Amino acid sequence: PISFIAIGGGVVGDLTGFAASTYMRGIDFIQVPTTLLACVDSSVGGKTAIDTDYGKNLVGTFYQPKAVFINPNFLKTLDERQFKTGLGEVVKYSFIEKSCKCEEDLNLTNFLSEKAEMIVNRDERVLSKLIEICVKLKISVVEKDEKEGGLRRILNFGHTYGHAIEKITKYKKYTHGEAIVEGMKFAFNLAVKRNLIDKNYKFLAEDVIKKFNFVDIPEFDMEKMIELMQMDKKATFDKIVFILPTDYSTVEAFELDSKDLL
Ligand SMILES: NC(=O)c1ccc[n+]([C@@H]2O[C@H](COP(=O)([O-])OP(=O)(O)OC[C@H]3O[C@@H](n4cnc5c(N)ncnc54)[C@H](O)[C@@H]3O)[C@@H](O)[C@H]2O)c1
Ligand SMILES: [Zn+2]
Question: In 3D, which of 91, 89, 105, 84 has the Cα closest to residue 208?
């Protein structure tokens, strides 16, 4: 029987996975991710999707690849911005690690602090280890909640506000990773405001983020941002689901009213 092999970034992986899941009601496919984002995020977990004129990721399926083969050497030719957008998701895993309930203690925050320079220089062995940690965390979440009934929502940390940034700038100005880094900063500030965490943790988180020199994104009109967040397909009625830090490397989902965000 035929099978598909997706060699490329998240777009190729998602498109191939979607085609494989629907062609003849499903044929095997294999992922060979070639961007950092695809290695640590999109190739693992079995979500496939395509964009339509009516919205991003609007049409899709849950469909697991038969295998995922990762070789960090692919990442050497990625341009700086593409590499950084993947780092945005990597940093995210460090802030949600304990909530991923992985049996192994991976301590990604330490790894990021100690190896930041080697990561930025794309040291092959360090990248290998880094990807391994992130994949283990994602697998740990997805195997407990494959279809996003509960736990999987934590992977959305930074994404509620991040998606609104992407939308308000028409997906042109910032990469996904840049937007979610800003979304995580927003979430840390909101968590301090709601007394969920102390300021020290927020400062520590900001220090981790600073190590990777993400672009600064200005603030946008909050009313407009709230409107966009309410349109997010994951919002229920007029409540906005926000993943917020509650402790070191720990997050929880909160349903907030728009007035909680002002
Ligand atoms: N399925 C999921 O769970 C999931 C999760 C996150 C994101 N996604 C999807 O993934 C997509 C983003 O993925 P992405 O960031 O990999 O973007 P992408 O697939 O668009 O790749 C980014 C760019 O890098 C190029 N490229 C790929 N590999 C390269 C290499 N080794 N060297 C040089 N250039 C290379 C590509 O041609 C492209 O221009 C989005 O469509 C998003 O919706 C899916
Ligand atoms: Zn993401």
Answer: 91
